[in-house]
Amino acid sequence: MGTTAMTLLAGLGVLALVSGVLVFTLNSMARVTFSLLAALVCVGGVTAVLGLPYLGVVIVLMMVMEMVIMAVFMIAYMMNPAGLMPMSMLHNKRGALAVSGVVFAALVAGILLAPWPDGTGARPKDTTFQVGMALMGEQMLTMVTLGFVLLATMVGATVLATRRGRYDRLGDDLDRRPADDPVRGGVGR
Q: What is the pTM of this model?
């Protein structure tokens, strides 16, 4: 691994650690969400630098979408305005500190004491294919099909759950003003 990769790896690791600490020190859900997003994007970057760019990009895309959806739902549905009211993210501070300290020490000891294998084999040409085969095996077509079925199910459930469409609200020519909304005092259904 070259100097640039090592520098990038160290920088992303430090940023991930700092963002992870901020998750437990910031005092609002919205700020915590974006701090967690930053930490997980850095983890995706570390994964990409370590030679698995496909998996790193998947981590980044998955976490960005998850955290943005969480932020949108917080803004839309939380009682306090946009999850920005002060609050504490820490519960059972002493117990959590003790457990996290023991787990951290065990993980560091495992890293330092584990007999790491030497990289003797040749690196595969297509790491994306290797990761796909390791994760899915022979079931790749099944998983792709399942993804499309799940997407169609989500879209179908949303369409079926929505009783009224734009033609119901605004008329056949979409020119009814104000819209026929029950909230705004329209006729409703």
A: 0.55
